[in-house]
């Protein structure tokens, strides 16, 4: 298989707009700076995530520990694109495919950065809490950052979950991430059940996960 994703077809206009050249670079720098600042200060007011009850944004992301290089594919199946493959149509051991993630079971999708700190610690807690619920999958998304650093982080924490790379921050933008950690709880099939911004205490986390395996 090629070392690059068959990307990047454009998503629906309402979901994502591509900026050329220097404007794209500037937008990425501002996004990283904003997430970093909010994470450091604990500011949460502007980070709300996707609306509860709405379908998730479909995506196919390169896995951090793979050799695959590329931006996240966010072409939605509902877009009706004829010249590009939708994200959920992509399948590879090197890809985190959102539709496969929630095909038959619910999932917790945790957005983090590539550094040690509360974002990585929250992913640890989500993984540990989900171990009590075998029917729930956990996946992580590393926003921008350095892939080598993300690999070291994953190795240090001994994460066995799929960990995708959002190298240009586009997926984080579509999921409304302004501060990490942000956890999006998805019902089987991909409907947003809840969103948790910032750290969750153990009882709140357990309640979120328990609700996922209840009637949907």
UniProtKB/TrEMBL annotation:
Record keywords: Membrane, Transmembrane, Transmembrane helix
Transmembrane domains' residue ranges: 21-37
Name of the protein this chain belongs to: Unannotated protein
SUPFAM superfamilies documented for this protein: Thioredoxin-like (SSF52833)
């Amino acid at each position: 298989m090629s070392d690059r994703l068959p990307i990047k077809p454009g998503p629906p206009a309402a979901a994502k707009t591509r900026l050329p050249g220097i404007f794209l670079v500037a937008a990425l720098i501002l996004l990283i700076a904003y997430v970093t600042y909010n994470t450091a200060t604990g500011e949460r007011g502007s980070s709300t995530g996707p609306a509860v009850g709405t379908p998730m944004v479909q995506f196919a992301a390169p896995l951090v520990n793979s050799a695959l290089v590329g931006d996240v594919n966010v072409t939605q199946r509902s877009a009706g694109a004829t010249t590009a493959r939708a994200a959920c149509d992509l399948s590879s051991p090197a890809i985190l495919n959102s539709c496969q993630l929630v095909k038959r079971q619910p999932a917790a999708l945790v957005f983090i950065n590539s550094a040690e700190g509360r974002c990585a610690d929250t992913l640890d807690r989500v993984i540990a809490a989900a171990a009590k619920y075998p029917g729930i999958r956990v996946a992580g998304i590393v926003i921008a950052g350095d892939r080598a650093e993300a690999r070291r982080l994953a190795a240090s924490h001994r994460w066995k979950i799929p960990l995708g790379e959002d190298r240009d921050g586009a997926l984080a933008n579509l999921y409304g991430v302004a501060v990490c950690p942000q956890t999006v709880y998805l019902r089987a099939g991909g409907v947003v059940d809840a969103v948790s911004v910032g750290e969750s205490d153990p009882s709140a986390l357990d309640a979120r996960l328990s609700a996922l395996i209840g009637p949907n």
